[in-house]
Amino acid sequence: MTPEAKLYQVIKRKLEKTCHIQRIENLVERGSPDINVCHESGIEVWIELKIGIFPLIRPEQIAWGRRRARKNGRCFVLSRSEKKIRIWKHPDIEVEDVEGKKYKKVINASRWTIDLPIQEDELIKILFLEN
Fold this sequence. Notes:
- The protein has about 130 residues and is an alpha+beta fold.
- It has helices at about 5-15, 60-70, 120-130; strands at about 20-25, 35-40, 45-50, 55, 75-80, 85-90, 95, 105, 110-115.
- The protein has a single domain (about 5-130), classed as Trna Endonuclease, Chain: A, domain 1.
- The chain contains three helices and nine strands; from the N terminus they run αββββαβββββα.
- Strand 5 (about 75-80) and strand 6 (about 85-90) form a beta hairpin.
- The longest helix has 13 residues, at about 5-15.
- The radius of gyration is 14 Å and the shape is globular.
- The chain starts with a helix and ends with a helix.
């Protein structure tokens, strides 16, 4: 199982009591996030899962998140490092080119940082209740 797949399992276990979670395997529309989550309140979010303190992200993923944010959609990048989860919200993600690669590197500090293990109430507050 890939590190991102393991991260998905952790997120799913933490949210499945109060949310409907759908993993997205979209080979047609490049850039769509990895998971869609609908909270029992009716609020829906999209989450791109990554690994690392300052993760790499494809330009298509940045563009997708910004398009969604312009329509008041809630779209996040959630990245796991050794002992922390970092969360960025579109459109507040700053990136820079990585020499010789098609990816961009996230360079700004995350808006939220959660110590592992993840607490369900803290994750729900960030994803569904805060702006």
